[in-house]
Structure formats: structure tokens, C-alpha cells
Design a protein that fits this description.
By secondary structure, this protein is mainly alpha-helical. Helix content is 63%, strand content 6%. The strands form two sheets. Strands 1-2 form a two-stranded antiparallel ribbon. The protein has a two-stranded antiparallel ribbon with strand order 3-4. The relative contact order is 0.16.
Length: 174
């Protein structure tokens, strides 16, 4: 399959439905942000402890499913309740490990800083998908998944910091 097709040279791109839409459309904005997240996750996993790498790869695969759902305008749906439940179980596990009591200063290690960037991009992707849910009626499960994912990434970053004795809680937040 050729990479350069020249079909996007006029500012349009194709959806799975065969429709051509503007590259600036909210669907493409959402998918572009999710693609960016996938790239940042790919970078982050090289800095993570071994026990977290498989988690990140599974998340990356689900991000492809989300992009496919959005590019098909909701006709291709692969995010299932089990995917969200899996994230929630991991969140619970890391909450137990970290046991936060206040705000934190992010980025105390390279690995946690990489996950914090991923979390921020996830939040942006979540905002883009929220627009699709409200304006197009597509992506609800993707929105829930991204919401949980940002929580998980936050907690994974804190777990790394706690394990390395570098968790910096901000006790006098003003």
C-alpha cells in the first residue's frame, strides 16, 4: 500500500465510510490528537518499568480501535465495557499503591514526566472526543475510555515516583 497518495493535497481526507471530509473537521482533530497520544505513549514505554510496558501496549491497541470508531462515524465500535473495567481495576490497584494525600508536583523522574505528558495529551483527546459526542453523537465509549486512561496515566506516573522515593506532594497549595 503506498504511503503517498496525494489525495489529501486539497485539504480533505477519507473516512472508513468512504466520505471525504476536511482535515480540520472535529473528527480528524480528535483522531489526530489520539494519534499524537499513541506516539507519546510509544516513546514513554521505553522509559517505564517492565511491569508497565505491556499495559501501555494494550492501551495503544485500544487507541487504534477508538480512531477506527471515529473514522467510521460510529459504525465500527470496539471499545467494550471490559476495556473500561480493565482500566478501572488498574486505577484501583495504583491508587492503593500510591495513596495520595494532596496535590503533586509532576515530573520527578524522566519516566513519570513522560507519562504526565501522555496524560495531558489524553485530556486534550478527551476534550476533542467530547465535542464529537455532543455534536455528532459518536464516541461515547471512547470518551469514557479516555477519561479513565488519563486517571490511570496520572497514577502510573505517581507509582513510579513513589517506588523511586521521588513523589513530591504539595501540602501547602495556595
Amino acid at each position: 500500500m503506498p504511503v503517498t497518495t496525494k489525495t489529501g493535497d486539497k485539504g480533505l481526507t477519507g473516512l472508513f465510510t468512504g466520505d471525504r471530509i476536511a482535515k480540520s473537521s472535529p473528527i480528524i482533530e480528535a483522531n489526530g490528537t489520539i494519534d499524537e497520544l499513541d506516539s507519546f505513549l510509544g516513546e514513554a514505554k521505553h522509559h517505564l518499568p517492565e511491569d508497565m510496558r505491556a499495559t501501555i501496549e494494550r492501551i495503544q491497541l485500544r487507541l487504534y480501535d477508538i480512531m477506527a470508531e471515529l473514522a467510521s462515524r460510529g459504525s465500527y465500535r470496539k471499545i467494550e465495557p471490559g476495556d473500561i473495567q480493565w482500566l478501572e481495576e488498574l486505577i484501583e490497584r495504583y491508587e492503593g499503591e500510591v495513596q495520595l494525600k494532596s496535590f503533586v508536583l509532576p515530573g520527578s523522574t524522566v519516566a513519570s514526566a513522560k507519562l504526565d505528558v501522555c496524560r495531558a495529551v489524553t485530556r486534550r483527546a478527551e476534550r476533542r472526543v467530547a465535542k464529537l459526542v455532543l455534536e455528532y453523537g459518536i464516541g461515547h465509549d471512547a470518551l469514557v475510555y479516555l477519561n479513565r486512561l488519563s486517571d490511570l496515566l496520572f497514577l502510573m506516573a505517581r507509582a513510579i515516583e513513589k517506588r523511586e522515593g521521588k513523589l513530591r506532594e504539595v501540602k501547602n497549595f495556595q
